[in-house]
Specification:
Strand content of chain A: over 45%
Distance between the termini of chain A: 37 Å
Shape of chain A: globular
Radius of gyration of chain A: 13 Å
Structural class of chain B: mainly beta
Largest interface: A-B, 26 and 24 residues
Order of helices and strands of chain A: EEEEEEEEEEE
Number of helices of chain A: 0
Structural class of chain A: mainly beta
Radius of gyration of chain B: 13 Å
Oligomer: heterodimer
Helix content of chain A: under 10%
Number of helices of chain B: 0
Number of strands of chain B: 11
Order of helices and strands of chain B: EEEEEEEEEEE
């Protein structure tokens, strides 16, 4: 149980284009989903927290107009990287928890984004 | 916000030896402390976690200790095996932040045969 999937697993795009990454909880309802970014040989950095039906809460330094997060259902959250640039190339990982007061998170497999 | 420090950044041990990784946190409201193992290009894998109402937890070769007063927690791996080689991350979270995880910088563990 508690499986989280992400799609796509990897994507290559041209600079200036937008890319959408999907995060799905397959066998549970995820009230809260988190988006993390991980640069090579670095740690995971929280980008934003999204609760179903609410606007996402972004961490300081993360541009909400550049990284659009939508959590329209209890099983799906999407991250859209708008006007992507090479510096946005990174490993994007989502996670989900069952309730708003639940500490355990289940991670997706990650999406490797390369912007040319 | 929460700040999690992790040491060492790299650790090399011989197979069969023990490995210890230490983390400190800054927010006294943190009450959930998971440890993750991450292999290259893969998702973090939860290996053990501890909550603030417990001082120690063990699962076979892996144990975690928590000292709330000193705000530090440690991962102990005994009888290390080559397949334990990976990057290990500690993390801390608080209910106030919806349990969003603040990660340490990671420890690259190498177990040599």
């Amino acid at each position: 149980g508690a499986v989280v999937s992400q799609h796509p697993s990897w994507v290559i795009c041209k600079s200036g284009t937008s890319v959408k990454i999907e995060c799905r909880s397959l066998d549970f309802q995820a009230t809260t989903m988190f988006w993390y970014r991980q640069f090579p040989k670095q740690s995971l950095m929280l980008m934003a927290t999204s609760n179903e039906g609410s606007k996402a809460t972004y961490e300081q330094g993360v541009e909400k107009d550049k990284f659009l997060i939508n959590h329209a259902s209890l099983t799906l959250s999407t991250l859209t990287v708008t006007s992507a640039h090479p510096e946005d190339s990174s490993f994007y990982i989502c996670s989900a928890s069952v309730g708003r007061s639940t500490d355990t998170q289940y991670f997706g497999p990650g999406t490797r984004l390369t912007v040319l | 916000g929460e700040n999690v420090e992790q040491h060492p950044s790299t650790l090399s041990v011989q197979e069969g030896d023990s490995a210890v990784i230490k983390c400190t946190y800054s927010d006294s409201a943190s009450n959930y402390f998971p440890w993750y193992k991450q292999e290259l290009g893969k998702r973090p894998q939860l290996i053990i976690d501890i909550r603030s109402n417990v001082g120690e937890k063990k699962d076979q070769r892996i144990a975690v200790t928590l000292n709330k007063t000193a705000k530090h927690f440690s991962l102990h791996i005994t009888e290390t095996q080559p397949e334990d080689s990976a990057v290990y991350f500690c993390a801390a979270s608080t209910p106030n932040s919806g349990y969003a995880l603040n990660f340490g910088k990671g420890t690259s563990l190498l177990v040599t045969p």
